[in-house]
Design goal:
- Keywords: Hydrolase, Signal.
- InterPro entries: Galactose-bd-like_sf, RhgT-like, SGNH_hydro, SGNH_hydro_sf.
- GO terms for molecular function: hydrolase activity, acting on ester bonds.
- This is SGNH hydrolase-type esterase domain-containing protein.
- The chain is about 25% helix and about 20% strand.
- It is an alpha/beta fold.
- It has 2 domains: about 1-160, Jelly Rolls, CATH 2.60.120; about 160-390, SGNH hydrolase (Rossmann fold, 3-Layer(aba) Sandwich).
- The strands form 3 sheets. The chain has a 5-stranded antiparallel sheet with strand order 2-3-8-5-6.
- Helix 6 links the parallel strand 12 (about 230-235) and strand 13.
- Helix 6 (about 255-265) packs parallel to helix 7 and helix 8 runs antiparallel to helix 9 (about 345-365).
- It is globular and about 60 Å long.
Length: about 400
């Protein structure tokens, strides 16, 4: 899937979609019978009539996707995910003969970086892993996944410039590529209207330091525009003293690195918001969540006040959610059938994303009008049945890095 660095640089430098591209995706259409080939469009391997992945080759950028959903002969219920399982539309029902139009924004990126000037330090590509290279994220195409009982008449893709929320973080934020793991960052797009894009650059196992040395922050900053937002959530891995190269002390280096991230966003005319890390699911004998993040969440709260940036207190909200579910039900919101106490499944990711969306609505006036999620009270979370999300076909028994 991934481009070579040289080809990616060519795409970034000069290639673009000059006009909207439209495709017939109705059952039996020629497009539905065409396998994807590099530089073109078509179906990804494993596609069926019940769930399929459609890709279009595009350069880096943000794209407005317009879907016409429906079928003259049968009813449908369509869920759409983009790239690595970013939730865009959820359970859109259409009656027999009914057609509806839906729009959303998808951010697409390759590993390529604008090359630094001669003799200047830096790199020409993000240091992606072999696992990254197998995902529908760091490649040359926009990929849409259609699930449930999809009835899709057509898709139109066109490049746009739009306000963007960039996410920098770890495995609890990133776009998890395979079931059953999921993170709040990949659920956030469906909770916003079609006028704000989400560019999720988070990486499993990442720390504030590794996000820099892997050139992931360079990639993020290369796309930031004035008026965009940078949401920053690190802590789970930064606190690990057994990782000496990336350990950051909560009292000194951790807030110092966070402050530098904020400064880089501001230098480009963007806004920053700090997100406290969600707690791990460890209950005490009284049914309360144990504190495993020490002073890291407090350091984020203190820095947000000092820097006068919005605070998304997901640490507090996650505690309220888990305790409301209780020790018996809370595991159903976590990866690996609840054996994993750090990473979430679709249900847990939906709950945390709902908490983030509610905090945005309450604390960030510039973004609040774009929140379309239902009101959310962490102490009163919806049931798994109410928040059910059609699973993707991709599955992995490997836990996310940094567990």
């Amino acid at each position: 899937m991934p481009l070579s660095t040289s080809l990616a640089l060519i795409l970034m430098a000069g290639s673009s979609i000059a006009a909207p591209q439209s495709f017939d995706l109705s059952a039996g259409s020629a497009t539905r019978q065409t396998p994807y080939q590099a530089g073109g469009h078509g179906m990804e391997p494993g596609s069926t009539d019940d769930d399929f992945l459609f890709s279009v080759a595009v350069p880096d950028g943000t794209y407005r996707v317009t879907l016409t959903l429906g079928n003259r002969k049968t009813a449908g219920e369509t869920t759409v995910k983009a790239e690595a399982r970013r939730l865009m539309l959820r359970n859109v029902a259409t009656k027999k003969g009914q057609f509806v139009e839906r729009q959303f924004l998808v951010n697409v990126r390759s590993p390529a970086l604008p090359p630094p000037p001669a003799n200047a330090p830096g790199g020409t590509a993000v240091r992606i892993t072999a696992g990254d290279a197998r995902e529908y994220t760091w490649d040359d195409r926009l990929t849409l996944e259609f699930l449930g009982k999809p009835q899709v008449a057509s898709v139109t893709i066109e490049p746009v410039s739009a306000p963007t929320i960039f996410l920098a973080g770890d495995s609890t934020v990133t776009d998890q590529a395979a079931e059953p793991a999921a993170s709040w960052g990949q659920m956030l797009p469906v909770m916003l209207d079609g006028n704000v894009a989400v560019a999720n650059h988070a990486k499993s196992g990442a720390t504030l330091k590794s996000f820099l040395t892997d050139l992931r922050f360079d990639k993020l900053l290369s796309a930031v525009k004035p008026g965009d937002w940078l949401f920053i959530q690190f802590g789970h891995n930064d606190q690990k003293q057994e990782w000496p190269q990336t350990y950051a002390d909560a009292a000194t280096t951790y807030p110092a690195y966070l402050r530098a991230y904020i400064a880089e966003a501001r230098r480009r005319g963007a806004h920053a918001a700090l997100v406290t890390s969600p707690e791990r699911r460890n209950f005490d004998e009284n049914g309360h969540i144990k504190d495993t993040l020490g002073s890291y969440a407090d350091a984020v709260r203190k820095l947000a006040a000092e820097e006068r940036v919005p605070l998304i207190d997901l640490n507090a909200d996650s505690r309220a959610i888990y305790e409301a579910l209780g020790p018996q039900v809370a595991p159903t919101a976590f990866n690996d059938g609840g054996k994993d106490k750090t990473h979430h499944d679709n249900y847990g990711a939906w709950l945390l994303a709902s908490a983030v969306a509610e905090r945005i609505r309450a604390q960030i006036p510039e973004l609040a009008p774009h929140v379309v999620a239902a009101p959310f009270v962490p102490a009163q979370p919806p049931s798994a049945a109410q928040a059910a999300i059609v699973p993707s076909r991709a599955h992995s028994d490997v836990r996310p890095a940094g567990n």
